[in-house]
Amino acid sequence: MTTRTSVELQTVELQTLQLQPLGVESSPTNNSPSVSASARQGPALLVDASIDESPDNNATTALSKSRAVIVNTQLISLQLSTSFCNGIIVVGLPAIASTLNLEANLLLWPTSVFYLTAGSCLILAGSVADVVGTRPMMLAANILLVASALACGLARNGGEIIAFRGLQGVSSAMAVPASVSIISTSVEYGRPRNFGFACLGFSGPLGFLIGLVLGGVLVDSVGWRPAFYLAAASSFLLCAIGFWVLPQRSSVKTQTHN
User: What single-letter DSSP state applies at residue 104?
Assistant: First the structure.
């Protein structure tokens, strides 16, 4: 009797399951709600939000390939000229100290003051570039580099060359954030932009190397002052090119999301 009753109960349960609509789970009570539409759409909404918050790499206005090459060349050459002056100071320091009667306790200052002012003014220069724009900041850094390099060649004592080398550090601090901003906002995303950043980073060591080699040749042949005159002349040429080729304030296309 007990076996027959259990068989009948199983038969009733199977019939009940067959009568239920497909895709609806049975629940012991009618109060348990099914999965809501908003819960089912939760992952999709999260994915959409992540897409909206991701940066749009094509939002910036990229320059043409030919102009981008010229802009990169101008920015890289400016960094190279700055490092070239550092190489001149290192290799020509004995001759500079002898000519300007530089005291022994000040021998390291023509080299170290550049890095002191460059590091101290870097963040401030980046903030100013965000306000006034990268093009005016870059041109101002170029003009300051021309003036400081020429002044180093005309220095009459140790105090003057230390002060002018400090101004060169300020010009480097002004140029670095502006150069990075111009490449990141005006050069096409991908390989061209990566190549621009790579060349910008490589221009510092390369300029220092050229300054050591060419500066040593100039110091031994015509003196250390013409080496600075050469740096000033090349920086002036780059400044003239910058007035023509540097882009205006980068216009970034904004997108509104509902």
Answer: G
